[in-house]
Amino acid sequence: MNDSENNKWNILISSKSLQRMMLILLLILITISSCKKESGSSYSHYVSKELVLTYSNTYINNLIANASAIYPDFNNIKSQFTNAVKVNKLVYKTKVGGKEIEASGLICTPDSPGNYPVICFQNGTNTLNAYAPSMLATMTSYQMIEVVASIGYIVVVPDYPGFGASSQIPHPYLVSEPTVTSIVDMLTSVKEVMSTGFPGLTLKNEYYLIGYSQGGWATMAVHKALETTYSGDFNLIGSVCGAGPYDIKYLVQSMIGSQTYSMPVYLGYIVNAYKAYGQFDNPVSDILNEPYASRLSTLYTGLLTSDQINAQLTTSVSGLLTADFINGLASSSKYSTVRSALTSNSIAPWHTYKPLYMLHGGSDTQVNPAVTNFFYDSLIASGTSPSVLTKEILPGLDHGDGIVPCLLKGLQFIINLSVLR
User: Fold this and answer.
1) Pairing relation of β-strands 236-242 and 201-212?
2) pLDDT band at 413 (very low <50, low <70, confident <90, very high)
């Protein structure tokens, strides 16, 4: 073989080797890319989304018109519902009890391109998984929240751990750490997916919180967290808290100081969740009388409504709770870990600089309005200015009666804050 032929042969071999190397490199890159996509490692929290329903302008206008016939205050804002709305189920990663789980909720978006602020809504006490926001987005009460996106907001509605995608675990009812963490993680997942998952939509760094009952407590806890711990991640503008059990120890003591309590489901929920998440050391039988102590673990499985659970308990405080617990909660060493749990899951007052609107029905028999008065005074004593903190007690309204009036007033409060931006 002459020199010319040798050179041609060497070039051919080099070319084939280069092609082979390039092919191997390409396969490696494809494999890495595929693994990254499948594992979701490009996101720290976001897992998936799924469109569950769409509201047309006509449907929204009819919904608000019907609501205005019952609650005339809707007339003050109904002209602002201008966009169609898309509602997606969002699945994301969070941690509960140190273990990573997948949780869920709803993200509701205007069906028009734009740069929108965020409202995060925390719902009240629920015991039935089928009634979680992502499980029943068409429930009328949820629809009224979802269509707020029509005004020009990204509306986020967490299920809470224990519901939806995480229904396999007990719901950490009024347990602070997993509640706050799961809501903050959902807000983080929304930030992660917005630019790629919702073409034409961008997030304005402007966050508002609103909630009622358990959701009022959760909203207050997240308000504090966003202001004090996550201020570099989320620009909190203001929050609305309705009828929340902000100081749980204060509330429970007021409950057991009565002869009867119409919603034993709440007391049972606290005991069940706190026991499940190791919040106190006592056996349930130290707190509940039989047959309720033995029955408790069968009630909060996500399969029963609040009414069904109430029917399995009793409205007699002395019938439901042991005499030792009633007499010893305040100071007995036997219940020291119970007191500690109620205190640690209550919201410690602090000096907030962010606008905060607290509302409560004046005739609330389920969550004593004295809790709102007490916590308001505690926030003021901690340095919060009355110009930042607003309290309104709505005369004559019981717990259920106060939901819509509180949320309507709260929405107007948020809209007013938005206008000032």
Assistant:
1) parallel
2) very high
In this structure, what token pair is assigned to residue 231?
A: 């201020």
Domain that holds residue 145: 46-247+351-419
Average pLDDT of span 15-44: 50
8 A C-beta contact, residue 371 and residue 358 = no
* Same domain, yes or no: 293 and 393: no
Q: What is the number of domains present in the chain? A: 2
Length of the chain equals 421
Buried b (16+ CB within 10 A) or exposed e, 246-260: bbbbbbbebbbeeee
- Measured CA distances, 234 to 41, 104, 209, 358 (Å): 23, 20, 12, 21
Exposure pattern of 151-187 as b/e (b: 16+ CB <10 Å)?
bbbbbbbbbbbbbbbbbebbbbbbbbebbbbbbbbbb
Residue 77 belongs to domain with CATH number: 3.40.50.1820
- What pLDDT shows up at residue 420? 73
CA distance linking residue 267 with residue 271, whole number of Å: 6
